[in-house]
Amino acid sequence: MFRRSVVKEWFIIVLLCCLSGTVHAQDAVRVTVLPFEINAIEGRDYLQEKLPAVIKTFLDEEGATVVDPQIPRGTPWAAVTRKTGGIRRFGIDRGADYVIWGSLTRVGQKISIDAKMISSMGTERPSVFFTEGRGIEDLSTTVRELVREFSLKLFKKERVAKVGIKGNRRIESDAIREVIKTGPGDVFLAKSLSGDLKAVYKMGYFDDIRIDAEESPDGKIITFNVREKPTIRRIRITGNRIYEDDEVKENLNLKTGSILNIYDIQSNIRRIESLYKDKNYHNVRVAYNTEPLENNQADLEFVIEEGEKVRIKSISFIGNQAFSNEDLKDLIKSSEKGIWSWLTSSGELNREDLNQDAARLTAFYHNNGYIEAKVGEPEIDYEGNWIFISMKIDEGPRYRIGNVAVAGDLIMPEKELLGRLKITREEYYSREIVRSDTLKLTDLYSDEGYAYADIAPKIDRQANRLVVDLTYTVKKGKQVYFEKIMISGNTKTRDKVIRRQLRVYEQGLYSGQRLKRGVRNLHRLDYFEDIKVNTVPGSADDQMVLKIDVSEKPTGTFSFGGGYSSEDNLFAMASISQRNLFGRGQTLQLKAELGGSTTRFTTSFTEPWLFDIPLSAGFDLYNWEREYDTYDRDSVGGAIRFGYPVIDYTRAYLTYRYDISDIRNVTDDASDEVQDLEGENTTSSVTGMLKYDSRDKAFNPTEGGSHNISIEYAGLGGDIAFTKYTGEAGQYFPLFWGTVGFVHAKGGYVRENSGGKLPDYEKFYLGGINSLRGFDWREISLRDEDDAEIGGYKFVQFNVEYIVPLIKEAGLVGVLFFDTGNVFDKSEDVRWDDLRESAGFGFRWYSPMGPIRIEYGYILDRKDNEESGRWEFAMGSAF
């Protein structure tokens, strides 16, 4: 139905165009214009010459052929026509079908034109015309109106009296009239109607359009008779199995109620095919069916033949000699179909990845000395269900590094600058290393205040020696100072809390490194949803304005929940905390935790900048009841702590702790050391710690390290006296594809001081989710002479993790790990061959309710009385 409609539409358009051309050719007439009589005091000569020229121009536009009257300038035309036998005879002699003459009268600013036109071959009286205008400047408009009246007689044209529209039901008549240019009072022309027909068809709403013309006393009555295309009642998708119906329909721009248009249907077929080709179903075929219904409606059905998924059969390289095909395949993201393609998606074509593969190969060659290497666009061939990809490579020669120099504005000796460049230690040219060295020099200059330093590497190829000479040209410009630091967006956080983290100051010298560090400090505060940093020129070319725009997020929380951990079993927790108290950056927390083996109440407060210097101070108060395997411990105590930055990322801490512990419910199988502790024990200790923390974020870090060493001395009064040394190092480093590696080591040593006791709960145990996974909590311990469990005087612990992001936006990661470690007696040396080992896997999710961990550890050196492994589960705030 639609194909017949299209053919019919174009047939009508072509017919009208032909008709228009024919009428125009037949209506061509020859006209001569006699000089008009000019009745004017001013401008007579101008009008005498201008008027016939304007009339001639407009007659030409109307399609008439204007014949030169051949009357000498200044000769009265009346005398000429009398001599030749009258006006009709004059026209015949000149070969003109019509003769036009008349007069123009100017009175003040108004002009009026009286004109007559007579047929050279007829006998009828002359036709009389009259028009007037406002002045000479309006002459063209006045003459155009007059010539249109001439045209009606010359070409026997009729005017349009009315334009009507019939047959439309949904499309409003006014919308159709907007595209029709012919209107009442216009000349009735087939050419104009042809254009109107095309315009109405172009609206896309009609199956058929017919134009009728009727005679009336006032002219032609034009009627556009239209037949509207059906509307879509329902769209059906059949044959699809890869995509659901809704997924296909989401990609269509045809909806229920749309006009059933063949062009729109074809466009949507291409959309469906493109959707499938994005998933490598390149053999997909899409057809359509329509089912006519009542009320000018129709159902539309897209019939899909999906075909089989097309995969990459082979990837070949043409022209490579320095590197094998296998070497190059390892560099690109696209891959050939493998045995495990159903799991790994190998062999699937991703055009974006493929286009980037060419760039990856080019970069690889340029980074290995092939500075002239070129990689062509990948060529893709489809054969059945297979894809064959080939890439042309022009390697060119390999260039070594020649002379390297730094020239221009040097802020230190050239030799020292060269010593900081990596390219000087390379044998072959590398574009990536040159770029990295350029950034390194830029950062070096920016740290000295040269914010706009321009450093450009100049590459000089010595083709005859296959050597590249490099010169880094430096234009340092002026040293730049921070004129102002403008902070916005902070409705709660005080300006000084933000400024003290920035490491740069107003009127201070610009430093790119300190600015980056300051922004990182702001992120680590975790007070802000977003931080935008912008630098703009200041009032002089050596001034800069730093703009910090922050978007705050809630820092006060009330949480009530629970969880489970292998240490405490089930527990419930409630806490109130504010990490940015009164916008001063202070932290206050009240927390209660009730568990199967632990009851804990804590209150803590921290002021990070005491006396407006980076001296942190705080206190902790706690009441802690804990059940151990052979005794219970009830503790009441508190601590006062101070911290101060010493070097980059490093703070020194000093803490005084006072604790009163009541040891009770001691079992018969408890060790002698535990039984000696029964009753009340007082600890008064001081701890010094040096801590380095450069992690990019506190939770799920991807890079940076957290290391510390500490010494605790107990014996400043009380019953307990010991000295404990501990050290810990943990480093995160990004790997490939967004994965992260983590290595962790921890160790400690404790000894009893004279005049006091070393309690068992201050000794070392291992096992559990936070030390050696797969072992039960505190399972790794020592045994006394009675085979009772006791803690160790020494311990070492090592953990290696490989962290894989699974759902990055949700904070879900997978982890593979290896743990090893053990505890030792005070008389023992650390024996590396006695370390216990476990390995396993797990999942971690930083959920809205808090972090969740589920991990399985398998004991690699299991003993007879031990299980092979165990699941470790923790949620809530247990870690």
UniProtKB/TrEMBL annotation:
It holds the Pfam family Omp85. It is found in: Membrane. InterPro entries: Bac_surfAg_D15 (IPR000184), BamA/TamA_POTRA (IPR010827), D15-like (IPR039910), OM_assembly_BamA (IPR023707), POTRA (IPR034746). Keywords: Cell outer membrane, Membrane, Repeat, Signal, Transmembrane, Transmembrane beta strand. Gene3D superfamilies: membrane protein fhac, membrane protein fhac: a member of the omp85/tpsb transporter family. The keyword Transcription regulation does not apply. Its main location: membrane. GO terms for biological process: membrane assembly. GO terms for cellular component: cell outer membrane. Residues 1-25 form the signal peptide. It comes from the Bacteria. Residues 158-229, 230-307, 310-396, 399-477, 480-553 form the POTRA domain. This is Outer membrane protein assembly factor BamA.
